[in-house]
């Protein structure tokens, strides 16, 4: 991409450079995760902004981890919503009448 094309590109690029420096210096802890979730950037957007590997790879890794965690969380919520209610206890069956 080279030079950012819009103000949004410039903002995202600067924000993600700072985030990449944080990850490269201190690891991808909860602060880095929170910052990545705040900006809501996708893996495609990270590639689109034209970072070098030093900045791109840690951002992509963190985004993948967050995406996978969200996917598992959605699957868990969906599985809980699709399970039938357990049968009523005998004492509850008689009180419903």
Describe this structure in words.
The protein has helices at 7-26, 30-39, 43-48, 53-82, 90-95. With 97 residues, the chain is mostly helical. The model has no long low-confidence stretch (mean pLDDT 85).
SSE order and pairing:
Layout: H1 7-26, H2 30-39, H3 43-48, H4 53-82, H5 90-95
Helix pairs in contact: 1-2, 1-4, 2-4
Q: Note the quaternary state here.
A: single chain
**Which regions have little confidence, pLDDT < 50, spanning 5+ residues?**
none
Question: Which term fits the overall shape?
Answer: elongated
Query: How many strand units?
Result: 0
Q: What class would the helix/strand composition place it in?
A: mainly alpha
Note the beta-strand portion.
under 5%
How can the largest sheet be summarized?
Answer: none
Distance between the termini: 70 Å
SSE run: HHHHH
Look at the structure and give the mean pLDDT: 85
Number of helices: 5
As a whole number of angstroms, the C-alpha radius of gyration is 22 Å
Helix content: over 70%
